[in-house]
Design goal:
Helices cover 39% and strands 18% of the residues. The chain is an alpha+beta fold. The protein is globular, with a radius of gyration of 26 Å. The N and C termini lie far apart (72 Å).
Length: 495
């Protein structure tokens, strides 16, 4: 506890946030329960740990007496300390080592990589700064798939490792050591039948990983903390591709998805929407991204692409980890606003559903109106953990997540043209403007067709995409203008 009391506010905030994320409770309950007792005047209305004083954070942490809880808090302090005491970059530091430092020096590193490695079943690789092996530039990349177990935890079901040359070093299915509630086949691609004759255990995989990570090998992955958590392996020499790239979304930096980076840097999609993950290809993609970063210069590769999404996605909220005992229509009691419920295929004791609103604004307002701490998922999309009580008296919780990141460039699909009786008699000036708006996109389309016919069409791919975007924007302008005209005409004639 002495280490915690002497920690900086940044460390204290991380500890409290992690305690919230893990659902940890002290003698006064969780963080919000504590605030209701500690500060009755303000209470949970100011629940963001970053906006609370260090004294309040320490007071909350002092309510914990369980030895494992205190060990975990100490682990977070140690992780922060290892970041703070990282040696300054040397002139001869290799690009690979530069990327390790960029990962470990990232503001989100301590919060994501503070593992409960003191617990039984974890493996920790040796980390000796004076060891020559710590200057190794050897790289291997990993990706894992996990299933949902009956007790609500995740279990490793497949692991793939490739080397710098993208050659397979490990590709195996893993038999979960607990009863499985949901194989998440739509994501993992794994079914119960696939595991019938599998004998490989988590311990077997850990032994293989420890051999691969010997002598200072650097481990590469995307949101690698999730893979290490599933493997129950702690390794300090890591490169996390979700942390080493600065990725723009609108006017803000955000943590990119693997698909974002592959499209922006490698020029291809690692997976199509709705398709299962390919564990092996995801590992290769992470390695390719690191090699591209090394070849392009550690500080030079900065994607500046906006994440474009359509309003059809932006007008939805994803409700996930809903208890199977709560029917989908009960979401109408939990989430504010006017929406319809679109159920996804249930699995195990949890399922997911979409709350579909009329537009993005109503979806945003409903999300903002939910009582819960605002967090981000691994791709940077905002979500909240919601505790609810139904009219029937049933308690529970679920996650509600936006389908887009803040700052995403939302593309609005063109609406149907207003009917002639809606536009009635138009002023000559407006008719001329409409005619210009309608004809220019057609001209652009003709230009696009001519470009496609060109023998060197690959050169003009980007130009074609730009023209398509202009067409979409013009369609939107036409639709908006028609709506404005229709409203003005109705107003003028008292319709």
């Amino acid at each position: 506890m002495e280490k915690i009391e002497n920690a900086t506010k940044e460390v204290l905030v991380d500890i409290v946030k992690l305690a919230q994320k893990r659902g940890m409770k002290g003698s006064d309950g969780g963080w919000k329960d504590f605030l209701s007792v500690y500060d009755k005047k303000v209470g949970i209305s100011l629940s963001d740990p970053a906006r609370r004083s260090p004294e309040a954070l320490i007071a909350f942490l002092k309510t914990f007496t369980n030895a494992d809880d205190l060990k975990f808090f100490g682990k977070v302090v140690e992780t922060h300390a290892s970041v703070e005491h990282i040696e300054k970059k040397a002139d001869k530091l290799s690009p690979e080592q530069e990327l390790v430092y960029k990962t470990v020096g990232h503001p989100q590193y301590a919060q994501n990589y503070s593992f409960p490695s003191y617990e039984e079943g974890w493996c920790v690789t040796k980390s000796r700064q004076k060891n020559k092996a710590m200057r190794s530039n050897k790289l291997v990349a990993v990706d894992c798939e996990m299933v949902l177990c009956v007790d609500g935890t995740d279990a490793l079901v497949r692991v793939c490792v490739v080397d710098r040359d993208l050659q397979v070093k490990l590709d195996t299915l893993v038999k979960p050591d607990k009863a499985v509630a949901d194989y998440r086949t739509h994501i993992t691609g794994v079914t119960a039948k696939d595991l019938e004759h599998v004998t490989c255990s988590l311990k077997d995989v850990q032994e293989s990983m420890m051999k691969l990570l010997a002598r200072g090998t650097i481990l590469v992955g995307h949101s690698l903390n999730n893979d290490l958590q599933a493997l129950k392996v702690e390794h300090t020499r890591v490169i996390d591709t979700s942390l080493i790239f600065k990725f723009w979304s609108g006017s803000n930096f955000r943590r990119p998805s693997l698909n974002d980076l592959c499209k922006s840097i490698l020029g291809y999609e690692v997976r199509k929407e709705g398709a299962p993950h390919d564990c092996l290809e995801d590992a290769r993609a992470a390695m390719k991204l690191v090699l591209a970063k090394i070849e392009g210069g550690v500080d030079d590769t900065t994607p500046s692409t906006q994440n474009e999404v359509y309003e059809a996605d932006a007008m939805k909220l994803l409700c996930h980890r809903i208890p199977i005992s709560i029917p989908g229509e009960k979401l109408l009691e939990i989430i504010p606003g006017d929406f319809t419920v679109e159920l996804k295929k249930p699995g195990g004791d949890k399922y997911s559903a979409f709350a579909v609103f009329k537009n993005k604004q109503e979806a945003d307002e409903a999300f903002d109106g939910l009582d819960g701490d605002r967090l981000n998922d691994s791709s940077g999309r905002p979500q909240k953990l919601i505790n609810f009580k139904l009219d029937s008296g049933v308690f529970g919780n679920l996650y509600v997540r936006k389908m887009v990141q803040d700052g995403d460039n939302v593309q609005v699909a063109s609406n149907k043209r207003s009917s002639e009786d809606e536009i009635v008699t138009l002023p000559k000036k407006l008719k001329t403007e409409l005619k210009e708006l309608k004809t220019e996109p057609e001209e652009l389309k003709m230009e696009s067709k001519e470009i496609v016919k060109c023998n060197n069409c690959d050169i003009y791919v980007k130009e074609i995409e730009s023209l398509k975007k202009i067409i979409s924007e013009r369609d939107q302008e036409i639709s908006m203008l028609n709506n404005i005209i229709a409203k003005q005409v109705r107003k003028q004639y008292g319709l």
